[in-house]
């Protein structure tokens, strides 16, 4: 039963349908969120404040950590008993591991049947494993190609690239004409950020991580992806500091006008067009990551995230009420400048489209071709192996053949 009728005020009818119960008095929820990309800390705090105001028995203790700390925080919390987290944000690549390990609550019975086709399929994959649902999709995201229109014009380039080969060609023109020293910037630190860029290029080249149950990243389109990355570095087109960069580093370099092209998540669009944050505001274009001629017309990695309830949470009903509110259509539409909604109908709503029409147009194409990273319970181990070997290739510490062969061998042992 919903004990506080004030909850009805800010929440859509659909969100109310999602809420099977509200909070008992004096309940404190511990919630774990990410401190970079997607929604800002200020946005999350504002959402939660409104929730608390309309649920006078609940307080929410928010904890923000870098993406790189999320996974281990969730695992550690599983041993914390009643004092662990009640709501956690998790990546699309973790449901298999978390479900197999019993870390997340199966919430299939709480999700109304009529919600399914109103949310993008790519968002549902974030919270689904073996046909069971372990949360609600909250962040529907992929990496886009951002470009500086002014720098392209200075180099005499009239239209942005439509293929990855053209990205390379235009970068050479920009460099040769002295418009910018390093036209490309990426987040290629030894981290999941690099794997997301790599996945985008693998998808563009029609490659696979696994084929017939065996590692395939040493062949075909997956091999072509790392070759492209190496070439861009060796030719001086990619900023060499990219091998140390995370997404926020990419944003800062691009915002300073020091790169013509950058790969990054949705959140960057608002910030690079904000004059208080960026020197290139008003000069930025955004498009889906391009494809490879004869293979693909666009490419994208599924970088979506969901909100779930750890199995050891003593406040399951209250946690579900918070999740239902945060993922509701109205709330997502009101906070759509850093993260686009998971709801299909939202993409024709003025509060979502106004001022970011180009991003929404890019999203409509990118969402349709989002490629997953491997959906395996041992994903974290697989990713760590790939991170190590791909990074060593980029740094010139290992040959591509040796590094990929070793990575394939090590991953085979895990699987």
UniProtKB/TrEMBL annotation:
Region forming the signal peptide: 1-24
Entry superkingdom: Bacteria
Protein name according to UniProt: Extracellular solute-binding protein
PANTHER family given in the database record: ABC TRANSPORTER PERIPLASMIC-BINDING PROTEIN YCJN-RELATED (PTHR43649:SF34), ARABINOSE-BINDING PROTEIN-RELATED (PTHR43649)
UniProt similarity note: Belongs to the bacterial solute-binding protein 1 family.
Biological classification of the source: Bacteria, Pseudomonadati, Pseudomonadota, Gammaproteobacteria, Oceanospirillales
Major location category of this protein: periplasm
Localization annotation: Periplasm
Keywords (A to Z) from UniProt: Signal, Transport
Keyword Transport in record: yes
SUPFAM superfamilies: Periplasmic binding protein-like II (SSF53850)
């Amino acid at each position: 039963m919903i004990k506080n009728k004030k909850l009805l005020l800010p929440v859509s009818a659909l969100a109310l349908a999602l809420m099977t119960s509200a909070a008992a008095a004096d309940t404190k929820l511990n919630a774990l969120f990410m401190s970079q990309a997607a929604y800002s800390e200020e946005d999350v705090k504002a959402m939660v404040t409104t929730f608390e105001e309309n649920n006078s028995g609940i307080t929410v203790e928010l904890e923000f950590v870098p993406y790189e700390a999320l996974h281990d925080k969730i695992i550690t919390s599983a041993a914390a008993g009643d004092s662990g987290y009640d709501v956690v944000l998790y990546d699309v690549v973790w449901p298999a591991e978390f479900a197999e390990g019993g870390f997340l609550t199966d919430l299939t019975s709480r999700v109304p049947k009529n919600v399914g086709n109103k949310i993008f399929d790519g968002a549902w994959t974030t919270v689904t494993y073996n046909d069971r649902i372990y949360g609600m999709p909250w962040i529907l995201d992929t990496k886009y190609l951002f470009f500086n229109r002014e720098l392209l014009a200075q180099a005499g380039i009239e239209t942005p690239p439509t293929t990855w080969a053209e990205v390379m060609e235009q970068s050479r023109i920009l460099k040769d004409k002295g418009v910018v020293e390093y036209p490309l910037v990426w987040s290629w630190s030894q981290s999941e950020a690099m794997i997301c860029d790599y996945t985008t290029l693998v998808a563009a080249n029609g490659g696979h991580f696994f084929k017939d149950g065996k590692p395939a990243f040493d062949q075909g389109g997956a091999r072509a992806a790392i070759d492209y990355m190496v070439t861009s570095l060796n030719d001086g087109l990619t900023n060499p500091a990219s091998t140390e960069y995370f997404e926020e580093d990419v944003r800062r370099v691009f915002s300073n006008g020091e790169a013509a092209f950058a790969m990054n998540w949705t959140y960057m669009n608002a910030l690079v067009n904000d004059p208080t944050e960026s020197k290139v505001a008003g000069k930025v274009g955004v498009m889906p990551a391009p494809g490879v001629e004869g293979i693909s017309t666009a490419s994208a990695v599924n970088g979506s995230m969901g909100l779930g309830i750890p199995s050891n949470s003593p406040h399951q009903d209250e946690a579900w009420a918070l999740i239902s509110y945060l993922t509701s259509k109205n709330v997502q539409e009101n906070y759509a400048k850093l993260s686009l909604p998971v709801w299909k109908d939202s993409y024709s709503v003025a509060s979502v489209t106004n001022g970011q029409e180009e991003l929404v147009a890019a999203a409509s194409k990118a969402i349709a071709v989002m490629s997953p990273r491997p959906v395996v319970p041992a994903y974290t181990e697989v990713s760590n192996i790939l991170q190590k070997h791909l990074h060593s290739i980029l740094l010139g510490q290992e040959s591509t053949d040796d590094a990929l062969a070793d990575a394939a061998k090590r991953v085979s042992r895990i699987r």
